[in-house]
Amino acid sequence: MKCPFCSSENTRVIDSRPADDNNSIRRRRLCDECNKRFTTYEKVETIPMNVIKKDNIREQYDRSKIEAGVFRACHKRPPSTQSIIEMVDDVESEIFAREEKEIPSQAIGEILMDKLKDLDEVAYVRFASVYREFKDVNTFMNELKKMLDK
């Protein structure tokens, strides 16, 4: 590992510990040349996955798009940033557990809405209104009735 300060390749690990709920390893390193310390993270490389959009265009999976959608839905709502990140972690784990190279965006949306419903009902309705493209108030009311009947 190259030192980010002096670009020397003579670095060594001085401490290792689990990070991100044992999904990665945090390593403290020391450069033998300049004696500066820096941190690296080691994570298992996942299978590259493509998302099949509604118009059949394929694009590479991007976690930040899921996070952005959930953060928008939860704007000015009670869920903490940490609980949102944990929920997105759960969604991502479920997606990658399928071990498929391609996944329809609808499948991701359904998994996400299922988890969002448990996190915050208002955020769920906000997300669903955009995701399901509610055309009018009646469609919106039908979704609310489904929630209230459960």
Question: What would you note in describing this structure?
Answer:
The chain is of the alpha+beta class and 150 residues long. The chain has 2 domains: 11-43; 50-149. The chain is 45% helix and 22% strand. It is built from 5 helices and 6 strands. It has helices at residues 63-73, 81-97, 105-119, 121-131, 137-149, and strands at residues 11-19, 24-31, 37-43, 50-52, 58-60, 102-104. The strands form 2 sheets. It has a 3-stranded antiparallel beta sheet with strand order 1-2-3, with no helix packed on it. Strands 5-4-6 form a 3-stranded mixed beta sheet. Strand 4 and strand 5 form a beta hairpin. Helix 1 (63-73) packs across helix 4. The N and C termini lie far apart (54 Å).
Contiguous runs where pLDDT drops below 50 for at least 5 residues: none
User: Please, how many helices?
Assistant: 5
Number of strands: 6
Order of helices and strands: EEEEEHHEHHH
Strand content: 15-25%
Helix content: 40-55%
- Nearest-angstrom radius of gyration? 21 Å
Largest sheet report: 3 strands, antiparallel
Order of strands, widest sheet: 1-2-3
Mean pLDDT score: 90
Structural class: alpha+beta
The rough form would be described as elongated
Our measurement of the CA-to-CA distance between the termini, rounded to an integer number of angstroms, reads 54 Å
Number of domains: 2
Short synopsis of the structure:
By secondary structure, the chain is α+β, with helices and mostly antiparallel strands. It contains 5 helices and 6 strands; from the N terminus they run E-E-E-E-E-H-H-E-H-H-H. The protein is 45% helix and 22% strand.
